[in-house]
Amino acid sequence: MRWMLILVLCLLPAFATPGGEPQLRAIWIDGFNEGIKTPEQIDTLLARVRQAGLNAVVVQVRKSADAYYQSHYEPRASDIAEGFDPLAYLIQKAKGENPPIQVHTWLNTCAVGRNPHPRAMHRRFPEYLALSDMGEDFDGEATKIDPGHPGA
Hints:
Layout: H1 2-15, E1 26-29, H2 39-51, E2 56-62, H3 86-95, E3 102-107, H4 121-124
Parallel strand pairs: 1-2, 2-3
């Protein structure tokens, strides 16, 4: 009888139903490299996401005051074709997957770069920039707005 109890206890997990909350299994896609800049890149990305068993992507849609989506406030990223909206295409294709792939966005909020576009933030609001006393970028890498500035 004792061995029967041990056998039942050992086999019990085999009959247990899976439970718990669904898992988020995501990959982060930065805007500096290939990934969402063309329809072909997005199609390849989603195929690889599905193949890896992932259910979400986190994509960088604003690197340095440039938009990888349709924006009335910031210029489009210079490395995407005119008329192409990477975020809209990605969302449309990801929704069409079975099951759908979640799309989350990530933005660099303070980096504004030195985009030559007339609508670029550093051109419209130079007083928002976080610069050294010498008028240079603090880290020597990217121009940023000062989040402590009341207007920024």
